[in-house]
Write a structure and sequence with these properties.
The chain is α/β, with parallel strands linked by helices. Helices cover about 50% and strands about 15% of the residues. The chain has helices at about 1-10, 15-20, 60-70, 90-95, 110-120, 140-150, 165-170, 170-215, 245-255, 265-270, 290-295, 310-315, 330-335, 355-365, 400, 420-435, 460-465, 490-525, 530-545, 550-560, 560-575, 580-625; strands at about 30-35, 40-45, 50-55, 80, 100-105, 130-135, 155-160, 230-235, 255-260, 275-280, 305, 320-325, 345-350, 370-375, 405-410, 415, 440, 455. It has a nine-stranded parallel beta sheet with strand order 13-12-11-10-9-8-14-17-18, with helices on both faces. A four-stranded parallel beta sheet has the order 6-5-4-7. A three-stranded antiparallel beta sheet has the order 1-2-3, covered by helices on one side. Helix 4 links the parallel strand 4 and strand 5 (about 100-105).
């Protein structure tokens, strides 16, 4: 049986076999095998408290059936079994749900060894039904296993925990559940972000480049006009409600620069306070909503410091002055923009929170101290946001209250927060840790403690730190470097190269269509030799696709989840001995991916053409003005 199962693992789960083959042949020390009253083998684990049985000592098969029958609303979900034992409940599941896919997770490698000695894994249709095997050998395996498991999974997960494991492995089960919830949360965030922003990021890149090259680069100026100057980053957390009078006093007396981030600009304007500038770089179409009032009222005296990945609609309508920030991972800027004088372009990190982006900018510009106001990263009473923002409901929903997590606040007490807030706070703490000499003060009353900051009330800061009036240089925007020149010839060559690459990509897509059409024909006739030839042709064309620059920089990044699913199918069929089934899986998944990629190719070719014409037209206008 061990030999049979070793062959199954090598063939169907080669990565698992490579990682654990040595561990699976070690001697068992804590696992004992006995016979049940119905003469089936049952496994027990030896602990200080004595023997703990994984299955019923009387009738493990009947017990397993009852457990599987108790599971509700499985539907078409992918079932993840935590706790395998000798697999009686897996047998029952396969019988009751013959078409369902599942994976198994065994936290005790000695029990998994025993499974391999007594259960033929072929009975669970590895590769077809049994999709993944996971075991734990050390403390880091849990998170790594779950990250890898969820990374390429398209179905919803149904978690089934064998009841005996909650009793026998209580600590391990709790750690698994906590890790599982966190990984699923991270996966959902990733999927949500990819769905919302993958295509938008590329579209924004094409639309925004003309604004990037025609406005001053906020990070491109090497002067020291801000060095040692105090600054405040105003966020829209609920503690902002307490600070309007003090912020107004600071503004009127020029005690510090005031920079708003995100929606906080509207909260400030509702109180008659104009920030010295506002930061924004949200790539969604909804970002323009933040500036609706500014646009409708024609408020043109607040400069917008925008990230190059910002939703392009914001830049079209914004009435005030603009300065750009070149954001890391902006492939369009990296591909097309180069300074005339050869100097490198200072880029800013890509963050979840615009407040963290603004903080990095101000630190690198030399502001000190930097004070955080309204940066709660937590709830306060029943509020999530500051009041005065028309399009945001400041009050907590019932679901937010139910899912809230406890964190330490600025005064050492416990307060409630969300997973997203916690992730954003950790992101900011990581940034602060990379600038150990920066002086950053957190003045967000009732907010979460931010490692690397000190907490001081804004009233105390005004008395002790903000003592110099008129420290703000009101014409700071005019002192930015406005005449940065970008290499026009470099831009022309880059654009021409991408047009050529796009044409080659069109040919690749057409060839794929021909191959898939032939594949469909030979699937119908079950012509296996011809299908094998088509697989070779497909592989060569896929290699060509992966060398095409337009695909790698533009099209593939627009469809990351779809591409992952394609690669998942390739991995699944790699060891298949059924050419017809393999061809059907490849054709079904890749046809959908190809269709979407073709649509994106046509869209982006038009955007590339528009961008090229606008940039060159603006360059000619600048030359003529000079």
């Amino acid at each position: 049986m061990i030999f049979k199962n070793s062959t199954v693992l090598k063939s169907n789960f080669p990565n698992f076999w490579a990682a654990y083959k040595d561990s699976l042949i070690k001697n068992r020390e804590n696992v004992i095998l006995e016979q049940s009253k119905t003469n089936e083998p049952v496994v027990a684990i030896s602990k200080e408290s004595g023997l703990n049985y994984i299955h019923s000592k009387y009738n493990p098969i009947q017990e397993a059936k009852r457990f599987i029958e108790s599971l509700e609303d499985i539907g078409e979900k992918h079932v993840l079994f935590y706790g395998v034992g000798l697999g009686y409940h897996i047998d029952a599941f396969v019988q009751l749900y013959p078409n369902s896919k599942f994976s198994i997770y065994e936290p005790n490698i000695e029990i998994f060894q025993e499974l391999l000695r007594h259960k033929n894994l072929e009975m669970w249709s590895p590769g077809k039904k049994l999709k993944r095997i996971m075991v734990e050998e050390n403390s880091v395996d849990c998170r790594n296993n779950l990250l890898s498991f969820t990374n390429l999974l398209s179905e919803e997960i149904y978690l089934a925990i064998l009841p005996s494991y909650e009793r026998i492995f209580a600590e391990e089960t709790k750690n698994f559940m906590d890790t599982f919830r966190q990984v699923i949360y991270e996966r959902r965030q990733l999927i949500s972000t990819s769905k919302l922003f993958a295509k938008r990021k590329v579209i924004n890149g094409f639309r925004n480049l003309p604004y990037v090259v025609s406005n001053p680069d906020f990070m491109g100026d090497d002067s020291n006009i801000f060095k040692g100057k105090p600054a405040i980053i105003v966020s829209a957390g609920p503690s902002l409600n307490d600070e309007y009078d003090r912020l107004r006093y600071i503004k009127e007396n020029g005690l510090a620069y005031i920079f708003s981030v995100g929606s906080a600009v509207n909260a400030l304007l509702s109180q008659g306070i104009e920030p010295d500038a506002t930061f924004s770089y949200d790539g969604s179409i909804l970002n323009q909503q933040v500036f609706d009032d500014i646009v409708s009222q024609g408020i043109d005296q607040i400069p917008l410091i925008f990230g190059s990945t910002i939703g392009f609609e914001t830049l079209i309508d914004y009435p005030g002055k603009k300065a750009s920030l070149l954001v890391e991972k902006d492939d369009i800027v990296n591909l097309f923009a180069k300074r005339n004088n050869g100097t490198s372009m200072n880029q800013i990190g890509y963050f979840t929170s615009v407040a963290t982006l603004a903080l990095e900018v101000l630190i690198r510009k030399g502001f000190s101290p930097i004070v955080l106001v309204g940066q709660n990263f937590a709830y306060r009473a029943d509020l999530n946001y500051a009041k005065g923002i028309d399009y945001i409901d400041a009050e907590l929903s019932d679901q937010q209250k139910e899912n809230a997590l406890k964190v330490r606040d600025v005064e050492g007490n416990l307060t409630l927060s969300s997973r997203l807030h916690i992730d954003m706070r950790k992101e900011m703490e990581e940034l602060i840790g990379s600038f150990p000499t920066a002086k950053i003060i957190n003045s967000s009353k009732g907010g979460a403690h931010i490692e690397g900051t000190v907490y001081q009330g804004l009233e105390h800061i005004i008395e002790t730190s903000f003592t110099t009036t008129n420290t703000v240089v009101h014409d700071w925007f005019e002192q930015l470097e406005h005449d940065i020149e970008y290499d026009q010839e470099y831009f022309k060559k880059a654009a021409a190269e991408m047009f050529r690459s796009a044409e080659d990509l069109s040919k690749i897509f057409r060839r794929f269509e021909d191959i898939l059409t032939e594949m469909r024909h030979y699937i119908t006739t079950r012509n296996k030799p011809q299908l094998e030839k088509l697989f070779n042709m497909f592989d060569k064309m896929f290699d060509r696709l992966q060398k095409n620059k337009y695909n790698l920089v533009i099209i593939q990044p627009m469809n990351p989840l779809s591409f992952q699913l394609v690669m998942k199918v390739f991995e699944e069929v790699r060891y298949s001995n059924d050419p017809v089934g393999k061809a059907k899986q490849v054709a079904d998944e890749f046809e959908d991916y190809l269709r979407v990629c073709k649509e994106d190719l046509e869209l982006t070719k038009k955007l590339l053409e528009e961008m090229r014409d606008i940039v060159l037209e603006k360059s000619i206008s600048v030359i003529q003005e000079r």
